[in-house]
UniProtKB/TrEMBL annotation:
Belongs to the peptidase M24A family. Methionine aminopeptidase type 1 subfamily. A divalent metal cation 1 binds at D100, D111, E239. One of its GO terms (biological process) is proteolysis. The gene is map. NCBIfam families: met_pdase_I. SUPFAM superfamilies: Creatinase/aminopeptidase (SSF55920). This is Methionine aminopeptidase.
Length: 260
């Protein structure tokens, strides 16, 4: 399903995007050495419910998972890159943490992810991974607009990741959002320009470049959810929800300082 929002729905989409961005930034500030992943999940739950929003994850039960996800946020550490299920783990200095959050507020979903290093011991490899996903995300956003093909966005993202020397897995990528979290079109992190669905004003897209340092192969944890690099290498993941407008694309999940 591809859902096109009415222009009157855009203010609600902005509100949801702002909520997601603010929760992620709060959780980032609290994620220090010794913080437990289960505490991050509890904090996310409290902020979602306090805002009168709903989690898109807690009851999420797609074909590729194992039963309902059962948590309010994805917490992926080091070699984990997607769908990291929170568990009893205390963050260590130098851990590379990715937080992925999707919520629904007033009937509209927004989805965003950030990656960052915990503490003061940042490995150059970790910073390079994060930088590549952030630059690829900006390239994908810059390529988006009315009349643009999905393949144009995929090509823009993939060009940055490939130029940085990373292999690209296209099994999981960006997607449409609206009244539900995962909708068509699928936006792969590599593709051919001029191909695929033509974007229309009112379409919401979650663009999410993610990479692994030395492989494109994923393995699944025993929890049935957490996806890790097959080689144990580090990973990173960056994501924004954007709205296609009459004259371009608007980022809905910017942190508060960037929204001014």
């Amino acid at each position: 399903m591809i859902e096109i929002l009415d222009p009157t729905d855009l203010p609600r989409a902005r509100d949801t995007g702002a909520l997601v961005a603010d929760i992620l930034q709060t959780l980032k500030s609290r994620s220090t050495v010794g913080t437990n992943l289960l505490d991050i999940d509890r904090w996310a739950k409290a902020m979602i419910l306090e805002a009168g929003a709903e989690s898109c994850y807690v009851d999420y039960e797609p074909s590729f998972g194992r039963g309902p996800f059962g948590h309010y946020i994805c917490t992926s550490v080091n070699d984990a890159v997607l769908h990291g299920r929170p568990y009893d783990y205390a963050l260590a200095d130098g851990d590379l943490l990715s937080l992925d959050l999707a919520v629904c507020l007033a009937g509209v979903v927004a989805d965003s992810a950030i990656s960052f290093v915990v503490g003061d011991s940042a490995q150059p490899e970790s910073l390079a991974l994060i930088d590549a996903t952030e630059r690829a995300l900006q390239a994908g956003i810059a390529a988006a607009g009315p009349g643009v093909r999905v393949g144009d966005i995929s090509h823009a993202i993939g060009s940055v990741l490939s130029a940085a020397g990373y292999s690209i897995n296209t099994q999981f990528g960006g997607h449409g959002v609206g009244s539900t979290m995962h909708q068509d079109p699928h936006v792969a992190n590599a593709g051919r320009p001029g191909r695929g669905y033509r974007l229309r004003p009112g379409l919401l897209l979650a663009l999410e470049p993610w990479i692994m340092a030395d492989t494109a192969e994923l393995v699944t944890d025993a929890d049935g959810w957490t996806l890790r690099s097959a080689t144990g290498c580090r990973t990173a993941h960056s994501e924004h929800t954007i709205a296609i407008t009459d004259d371009g694309a608007e980022i809905l999940t910017l942190p508060a300082p960037a929204r001014q």
